[in-house]
Design a protein that fits this description.
The protein is an alpha/beta fold. 38% of the residues lie in helices and 23% in strands. It has one domain: 3-Layer(aba) Sandwich (Rossmann fold). The radius of gyration is 20 Å and the shape is globular. The N and C termini lie far apart (54 Å).
Length: 277
């Protein structure tokens, strides 16, 4: 697992032996990872591999079935709702679809967290929002409605909103999904530059290899319910592990089969269907 040589107070998020699931289905098991201040961590894997489930565990939306989730030195299994809400105020989240308020303009979308959580006089609020929009290249778009901006611009507005409170940890859920190549590159560079400027920890949940490898300090590759590999982008790029190579090269043949695996539940369902004849 990652080196623990950094100062302990650099640790923002730690998962140790964590298992997660829904109902009677286990999604992930024995997951361990560290996220430290100033790092950009890429959490990668195919669709349905459990990446977003890990995000939900990190924010306390679901509880671990086994193991520990430590957020800002607090065990999420041992705190109440008020304490969890306090921890969440140290976090920013960029949702997959941006989740902007369509009835608010760009300025008001970014200002929303400040109005909710900070008591600022309007001149100070105005300066802070415009400065944050400038950091993502959209200062002069402050007056526009959400319907008047492109998808790539909307993602940048959502990014500005996610960091307006200067969080200690930012979670990005598929930040590159649906973007054209130019917007994708811009978004990736913004994630890196904002992380460096704020000194915050960033976790990028994605399956985009090129852009993630360009900005990440450390990469975790999730598959088949476990962490299959982890390391720096350079280390993983040179890995001879068949699973890693299949994922990085997008090959159809390899440890991940093309056909969805059969199961006792499928067999039972099929038996019931055949009995209807």
């Amino acid at each position: 697992m990652p080196s623990l040589s950094s100062a302990p107070d650099d640790l923002v998020l730690r998962l140790t032996g964590v298992s997660l699931g829904y109902g009677d289905v286990d999604i992930l098991r024995d997951i361990s990872l560290d996220v430290r201040r100033g790092q950009v961590i890429a959490l990668m894997g195919g669709s349905g591999s459990g990446k977003t489930t890990l995000l939900r565990a990190a924010t306390g939306q679901i509880k671990a079935r086994a193991g520990q989730v430590i957020l800002f030195e607090k065990d999420l299994a041992r705190i109440d709702g008020n304490a969890l809400q306090s921890l969440r105020q140290k976090m920013g989240v960029l949702f997959q679809q941006g989740a902007l308020f369509t009835d608010l303009n760009v300025f008001e979308n970014v200002a929303f967290p400040l109005r909710e959580h900070a008591q600022l006089a309007f001149p100070e609020l105005l300066t802070r929002v415009l400065d944050t929009l400038e950091a993502v290249g959209l200062r002069a778009a402050a007056h526009l409605k959400v319907s008047e901006i492109s998808g790539g611009m909307a993602r940048r507005v959502a990014l500005a909103r996610a960091v307006i409170l200067e969080p200690e940890l930012v979670l990005y859920d598929e930040p590159f999904a649906g973007l054209d190549p130019i917007s994708l590159g811009i978004t990736a560079r913004l994630i890196r530059s904002l992380s460096d400027r704020l000194g915050c920890a960033s976790v990028v949940i994605t399956h985009d290899i090129t852009e993630s490898f360009a900005i990440a300090d450390h990469v975790y590759l999730v598959g088949q319910g476990v962490i299959k590999a982890h390391g720096t982008p350079d280390t993983l790029g040179k890995s001879s592990d068949p699973y890693v190579q299949q994922f990085l090269k997008g090959e159809s043949d390899g440890p991940v089969p093309f056909d969805y695996p059969s199961s006792p539940k499928f067999d039972a369902w099929l038996t019931r269907q055949e009995g209807k004849r």
